Amino acid sequence: MRKPIIAGNWKMNKTASECAEFVSKLAPQVKDATCDVVLCVPFTDIATMSALTEKTNIKVGAQNVAWADSGAFTGEISAAMLKEAGAEYVIIGHSERRQYFGETDKSVNMRLVQALKNGLKPIVCVGETLDEREGGKTELVNKTQVEGAFSGISAEDAAKVVIAYEPVWAIGTGRTATDEQANETIGYIRSVVKLLYGKKIADGMRIQYGGSMNAKNVAGLMAQTEIDGGLIGGASLKPDDFAIIVNTAK
Hints:
Helix content: 40-55%
Order of helices and strands: EHEHEHEHHEHHHEHHEHEH
Number of helices: 12
Strand order of the largest sheet: 7-6-5-4-3-2-1-8
């Protein structure tokens, strides 16, 4: 059985001073959760959030990691820095990083290598655009992104990775893939992992749905056999809504 994982992605929202009120509202509501609970927060919030959640079941993550240990990479942040600040998880290759900041399958792979080398738990994002889905390229795009991200990654390390399937056309648009569409594509992604690493790794790998999962649609999505949780955007900014999602993911 794969343990579900619900990870909030705050994106560029909430300052460190806003974290305390959020945690005080969320923590009591999710203390008995049967899934892993993660909040991926802005870099400036990580240390504060780590301290606030120390005695809770909430884990802290970052939203990106550099591909180098250190050096002249203005604006980047290393895995060692994230670890020291208190991050346990890290999102890699989110569609917004690909769209706005030139992220490629190669750079996703390089960042993944760094995360694994430094003991961070990666959440690697893959997914197609609306044009790609309507053009019948959903499987090709996801296969290419998975193969690119995991290039050179050992089976032992691959087993430590969570994949988040995020249909780009369903992020921040209010549109959501049907439960069956999401399950089908995640099942396909799992089949790609099976080709790369075998049945045991594929069956054990947790694959989230990352396309506008919210308090209203979580039950239907989580009832699907291939969906192991969610990478939550807007709904993760509201403690009550996020708690409903967490407590539905059993």
